[in-house]
Amino acid sequence: MSRVxxxxxxxxxxxxxxxxxxxxxQQRRKQIDTAVKAAFDTGKGRSGSPRLVLDLAEAGHQxxxxxxxxxxxxxxxxxxxxxxxxxxxxxxxNLPVAPNLLKQDFTATAPNHKYVGDITYLxxxxxxxxxxxxxxxxxxxxxxWSMSERMTAxxxxxxxKMAMWRRHMPTGxxxxxxxxxxxxxxxxxxxxxxxxxxxxxxxxxxxxDNACAESIFSFTQG
Length: 222
Known about the structure:
This protein is α/β, with parallel strands linked by helices. It has two domains: 2-75, no CATH class; 114-221, Nucleotidyltransferase, domain 5 (2-Layer Sandwich), CATH 3.30.420.10. The protein has nine helices and five strands. The chain has a five-stranded mixed beta sheet. The radius of gyration is 25 Å and the shape is elongated.
């Protein structure tokens, strides 16, 4: 067998010895895997590494997020998406709202004339994350995006900054969105003015006014 597999006899016996007598590191890894698997099963397979770190700590096992994530990968453990609705933008605020300049006209004759933006949520192995995008209506290309665990004004500011950087700082672009508090925030409006962009917002409660942006997220709702 050694000749056929082209391995030395000494190497074979050394490998078998290591298997029968695991090193302290291997024993430690096995203990971690056992604890992670138990916590994962207790959570009915819905917990990602951040949640498991907390669950393990409550059980007296102190492990950092990277250690838990590595253990999950070794064991092929993937969190299931919870059947839970996550709200996106909210128009219940007293911030100034821009007029609807697009009026459901989602056509453009050239790049960097009309952008639309929106926010959605995604389930990942690390839990829920929010995704914000900017789309150029001429090519329907996503020109800016950002992700975060929190749905804040910074989220939409970051994707707009990416769009500006990738498109070499165009000016006079109509940037359309819903009237959520993130888009009405002082930080986002200041960024629009800084780059000489024109703000446009959907009418209250009319999802069709931003249908082009929302359609790109249809795959996340299946």
